[in-house]
Amino acid sequence: MGAPAFPFLGGVAMSEPCPGEPGKVAPVVDRNRCEAKDDCVRVCPYHVFEIQPLSFEDRATLSLLGKIKAWVHGNRQAYVVRPEACRACQLCVEACPENALRLAPYSVR
Ligand code: SF4
């Protein structure tokens, strides 16, 4: 058996659906990958995501390819609107067809 994927969850069994405590980790969206396909919105049991218009600030951080992708997809992307509700189940990470999501400790963002 290997090391737990999220040792900061305190040894919570990852085989259960959404076993973690809320407020420990939250998803981070890679703005250069997200194409607003909405799988994260559909799979998250805790309504952590919404698809929203890409903010001016986030658009400014995109690579040239990211700007083109954003334009093609209507300048909309997934936003983490309830980060405190995330329970680390990783359903969104696994569902994203663009590999645009990762979980990070909530307290450091
Ligand atoms: S890991 Fe993803 S799907 Fe699971 S609770 Fe957190 S945001 Fe929702």
Structural commentary:
By secondary structure, this protein is α+β, with helices and mostly antiparallel strands. The chain has one domain: Alpha-Beta Plaits. It has four helices and four strands. The chain is elongated. It starts with 24 loop residues before the first strand and ends with a strand. The site of iron/sulfur cluster has 14 residues, from α4.
Please give the structural blueprint:
Layout: E1 25-29, H1 39-43, E2 49-53, H2 56-60, H3 64-72, E3 76-80, H4 91-95, E4 101-105
Bound molecules: iron/sulfur cluster.
Each distinct ligand: iron/sulfur cluster
Helix share bin: 10-25%
**Major sheet: size, sense and barrel closure?**
2 strands, antiparallel
Low-confidence stretches: 1-14
Overall average pLDDT:
87
Task: Based on Cα principal axes, name the global outline.
Answer: elongated
**Number of H- or I-type helical stretches:** 4
Assigned CATH class? Alpha Beta
Strand content: 15-25%
Please, how many domains?
Answer: 1
In whole angstroms, the N-to-C terminal distance is: 30 Å
Succession of helices and strands: EHEHHEHE
